[in-house]
């Protein structure tokens, strides 16, 4: 996950490959609560690992549930409907799928068994309405105190109190389906007689109620229904663990890759595994909307394949009540259409993680789009004159993921623009590895992938600076100085004759090299310490004399130019390897300063050293590097000179980020 202030997406050009979706958020948190309320142990497999499930699991532990891992399963040792903790404060973040059902369940358990429970969340959660659910629970006789604004969290749920279960429980259905879901999940705990729930107004997001009913059946509760107007919990209902539950992939998350296929999978299909024709989730019907816009879609029981069909896409008008979350993706797809797209019946967007209608309209306009919005609708015009934009994500995972599709604007305009996603880590709510997954299935022109080079003499701090800048931007890192050592080490391990330049060069393209936090990995092995050994340095000298090896390593270095960008350090990165780099920096720390730094490093490792000797050695190496025939050490003509003699690493990073921002269009 990219835990950085912003992530820059360069222009993207194509998509193909296979994506395995994370588990459904809606199913995951429902299953966790049902397992917690049941008798017995439940083995939950393919559970979503995200912020929302994390706060639910922490709440269940606080309430006395046993929670542990066995192999690839998470085991929940259920409460059997009996409270083990009678006093608790539960922080539920911004997880509506935890806040609403837990509020209902704890209100009823406190009423029948006694106890006091406080539920709270992040500031945005305290702006998300829960009053209709609270009113329904109070109508039953539950004691609920508002600890902030009436009708919103935080709340205190306390008891005991007498429940009136002989009259229907009435709840509004036109604000959020989670209120009805919460009652359906909680009322079996007190069903000494039939309990009738009546829905006031039109029920929105009906597919989410279908999920709830299907999962209730898995845990032994057979709810009787009268259309979408009334539901009856049978007398004597009791939760029983099914023993094992598999969580299917998240259909809402599938929408981004369906959209990706519709926009950019022109050569090979985008395959999405984890949802398909047998999915419980209503959002899988997003494929119908994508097909209406022109996508070519094939489905299987647990997979989808999507290709670009009509191009440009087709503008549509659609009632989105059945796909409330996934429909957000259509607003960005609409930018690639042949006419306007209008989405209606989306009032629920306004009470989600943010006011999603307002958020999408605001951010689409930053790209240059023409957008209109109403109380429960949004209309988006196709976009031709794209603008580079920094997208504010409002701590809303779906906003961040939707706008990643805007990076394909180069498919419809000759002036392709990058897109900046602010606070990209908000995707942790449902899909922590979303951007890493995206980069694994999309392509870009090499010239569009940004590169920062850091060159300089030996011991100038290039490697440390490159690592820190790479972390700050989410870019890959290339330590060019390690390549000859790795090539020599790999050739020796393969039993090659190091005097056979062609044989050594042939092994170079097979090297699986990664640079992470200053360490060098060859495959899964950390070879950092071995590369520093004197014997490995001698191997590097042997292989470096071969032109074929140098050419192979040159190509290997170029291959590190990968999404979303690269920071490369060495002696000729900005002059010979990446002469088109977006930012070139050349370090100019004096030999005296570098000798002092090297001396401190060696002493800290218990290695004796002499500063004068170190300085003389560095000055001699500088002279050799400056006068060598191939790629002599020298700053590129357009390089920024950075004298880091008196700068901390933090100050050096800050200066580089300032230079970088000055070169970006945001």
UniProtKB/TrEMBL annotation:
It is found in: Cytoplasm. InterPro entries: Cytidylate_kin, Cytidylate_kinase_dom, Enolpyruvate_Tfrase_dom, Enolpyruvate_Tfrase_sf, EPSP_synthase, EPSP_synthase_CS, P-loop_NTPase, RNA3'P_cycl/enolpyr_Trfase_a/b. Residues 16-438 form the Enolpyruvate transferase domain. Keywords: Amino-acid biosynthesis, Aromatic amino acid biosynthesis, ATP-binding, Cytoplasm, Kinase, Nucleotide-binding, Transferase. The active site is at residue 325. Phosphoenolpyruvate binds at residues 25, 96, 128, 178, 356, 398, 429. It is an enzyme of class 2 (transferase). 3-phosphoshikimate binds at residues 25-26, 30, 176-178, 205, 325, 352. ATP binds at residues 456-464. Monomer. This is Multifunctional fusion protein. The gene is aroA.
């Amino acid at each position: 996950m990219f835990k950085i202030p912003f992530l820059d997406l360069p222009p993207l050009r194509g998509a193909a490959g296979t994506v395995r979706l994370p588990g459904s958020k809606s199913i995951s948190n429902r299953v966790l609560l049902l397992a917690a309320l049941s008798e017995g142990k439940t083995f939950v497999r393919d559970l979503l690992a995200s912020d929302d499930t994390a706060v639910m699991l922490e709440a269940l532990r606080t309430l006395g549930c046993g929670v542990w891992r066995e192999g690839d399963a998470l085991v929940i040792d259920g409460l059997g409907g009996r409270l083990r903790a009678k006093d608790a404060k539960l922080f539920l973040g911004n997880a509506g799928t935890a806040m609403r059902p837990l509020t209902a369940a704890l209100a009823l358990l406190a009423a029948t068994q006694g106890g006091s429970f406080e539920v709270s969340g992040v500031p945005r959660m305290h702006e998300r309405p829960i009053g209709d659910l609270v009113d329904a629970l109070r109508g039953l006789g539950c004691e609920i105190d508002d600890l902030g604004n009436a009708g919103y969290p935080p709340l205190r749920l306390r008891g005991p109190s007498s429940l009136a279960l002989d009259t229907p429980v009435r709840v509004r259905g036109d604000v959020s389906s989670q209120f009805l879901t919460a009652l359906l999940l909680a009322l079996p705990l007190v069903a000494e007689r039939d309990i009738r729930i009546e829905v006031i107004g039109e029920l929105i997001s009906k597919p989410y109620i279908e999920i709830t009913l299907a999962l209730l059946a898995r845990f032994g509760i057979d709810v009787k229904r009268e259309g979408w107007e009334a539901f009856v919990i049978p007398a004597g209902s009791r939760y029983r663990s099914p023993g094992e539950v598999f969580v299917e992939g998240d259909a809402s998350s599938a929408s981004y890759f369906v959209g990706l296929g519709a926009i950019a999978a022109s050569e090979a299909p985008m395959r999405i595994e984890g949802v398909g024709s047998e999915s419980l989730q209503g959002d899988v019907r997003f494929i119908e909307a994508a097909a209406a816009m022109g996508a070519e879609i094939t489905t299987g029981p647990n997979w989808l394949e999507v290709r670009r069909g009509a191009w440009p896409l087709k503008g549509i008008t659609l009632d989105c009540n059945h796909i409330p979350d996934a429909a957000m993706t259509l607003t960005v797809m609409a930018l690639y259409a042949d006419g306007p797209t209008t989405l209606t019946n989306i009032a629920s967007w306004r009470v989600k993680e943010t006011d999603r209608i307002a958020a999408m309209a605001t951010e689409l306009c930053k790209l240059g789009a023409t957008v209109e919005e109403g109380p429960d609708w949004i209309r988006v015009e196709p976009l031709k004159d794209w603008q580079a934009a920094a997208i504010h994500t409002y701590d809303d995972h779906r906003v961040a993921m939707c706008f990643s599709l805007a990076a394909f604007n180069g498919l419809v305009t000759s002036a392709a623009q990058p897109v900046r996603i602010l606070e990209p880590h908000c995707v942790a709510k449902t899909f922590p590895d979303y951007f890493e997954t995206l980069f694994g299935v999309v392509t870009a022109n090499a010239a569009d992938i940004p590169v920062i080079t850091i060159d300089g003499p030996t011991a100038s701090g290039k490697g440390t600076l490159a690592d820190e800048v790479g972390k700050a931007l989410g870019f890959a890192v290339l330590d060019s100085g390690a390549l000859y050592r790795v090539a020599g080490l790999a050739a020796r391990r393969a039993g090659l004759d190091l005097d056979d330049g062609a044989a050594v060069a042939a092994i170079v393209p097979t090297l699986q090299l990664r640079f992470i936090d200053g360490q060098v990995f060859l495959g899964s092995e950390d070879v950092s310490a071995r590369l520093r050994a004197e014997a490995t340095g001698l191997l590097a000298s042997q292989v470096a004399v071969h032109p074929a090896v140098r050419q192979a390593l040159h190509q290997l270095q170029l291959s590190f130019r990968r999404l979303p960008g690269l920071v490369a350090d060495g002696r000729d990165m900005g002059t010979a390897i990446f002469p088109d780099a977006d930012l070139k920096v050349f370090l100019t720390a004096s030999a005296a300063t570098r000798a002092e730094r090297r001396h401190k490093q060696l002493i800290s490792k218990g290695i004796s050293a002499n500063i004068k000797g170190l300085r003389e050695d560095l000055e001699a190496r500088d002279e050799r590097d400056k006068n060598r025939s191939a790629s002599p050490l020298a700053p590129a003509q357009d390089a920024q000179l950075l004298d880091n003699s008196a700068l901390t690493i933090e100050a050096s990073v800050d200066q580089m980020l300032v230079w970088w921002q000055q070169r970006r269009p945001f």
